[in-house]
Design brief:
Order of helices and strands: EHEEHEHEEHHEHH
Mean pLDDT: 90
Strand order of the largest sheet: 3-2-1-4-6-5-7
Low-confidence stretches: none
CATH architecture: Alpha-Beta Complex
Largest sheet: 7 strands, mixed
Structural class: alpha/beta
Helix content: 25-40%
CATH superfamily: Spore Coat Polysaccharide Biosynthesis Protein SpsA, Chain A
Number of helices: 7
CATH class: Alpha Beta
CATH topology: Spore Coat Polysaccharide Biosynthesis Protein SpsA, Chain A
Strand content: 15-25%
Number of domains: 1
């Protein structure tokens, strides 16, 4: 079974003040940018949502959270329940500088482990194996929601990655200032790319 990619887009975007999935990034919505970034490299790209029809998913199928309002851990559970995938690459809408080659390397290095990450501090750019599903469900049943806490109890591999690439990939866009910095970095890398900060 080929690994699949899942883009998490069910957050509330409270710090940003508007949905991050629809923010302009290089001339297209951030969610569309990510779907198109990973589509050539994975057999399937899904968009994880807390309710159906919330966003234009650029043709990617939605996976709706089975447990509404619980966060990324519920999304991870729902993906394993709704697909046959053994390994999923899991990322978030607010990580727009993701690297598909690194994502594929995470899925390869996940074999034999519960998960493979670039950093234990960022569990939303990682690969997860189906064998971690019982731990995910048990944590949710105990109302233990933080994905970072779950990761601490899993058998995790860390993928070697250069510091500069790791920093770029894990550039988070959670608030207007981070969004402005991300657009500046995007223009620096490709002056033809545009975006409008809030």
């Amino acid at each position: 079974m080929e690994p699949v990619a899942v883009i998490l887009s069910g957050g509330q975007s409270r710090r940003m003040g508007r949905d991050k999935a629809v923010l302009d990034f290089g001339g297209k919505p951030m969610l569309t940018h990510l779907v198109e970034l990973y589509r050539p490299c994975f057999s399937q790209v899904y968009v994880s949502v807390n309710r159906s029809g919330r966003f234009d998913t650029a043709g990617a199928p939605e996976i709706v959270d089975h447990r509404a309002g619980v966060g990324p851990l519920a999304a991870l559970e729902s993906v394993f329940l709704d697909t046959d995938a053994q390994v999923i690459f899991f990322t978030a809408t607010d990580l727009p500088f993701g690297d598909p080659s690194t994502a594929l390397a995470l899925t390869r290095n996940c074999q034999g482990h519960d998960a493979c990450l670039l950093s234990l501090d960022e569990p939303l750019f990682a690969a997860y194996h189906r064998r971690c599903l019982p731990a995910v469900t048990a944590a949710l049943d105990r109302d233990e929601r933080p994905l970072r806490r779950l990761v601490q109890g899993l058998d995790c591999a860390l993928l070697p990655c250069g510091d500069a690439l790791r920093r770029r990939i894990l550039t988070n866009v959670n608030d207007p200032e981070q969004y402005r910095r991300a657009l500046a970095l995007l223009r620096e890398e490709d002056p033809e790319k545009e975006g409008t900060a809030p």
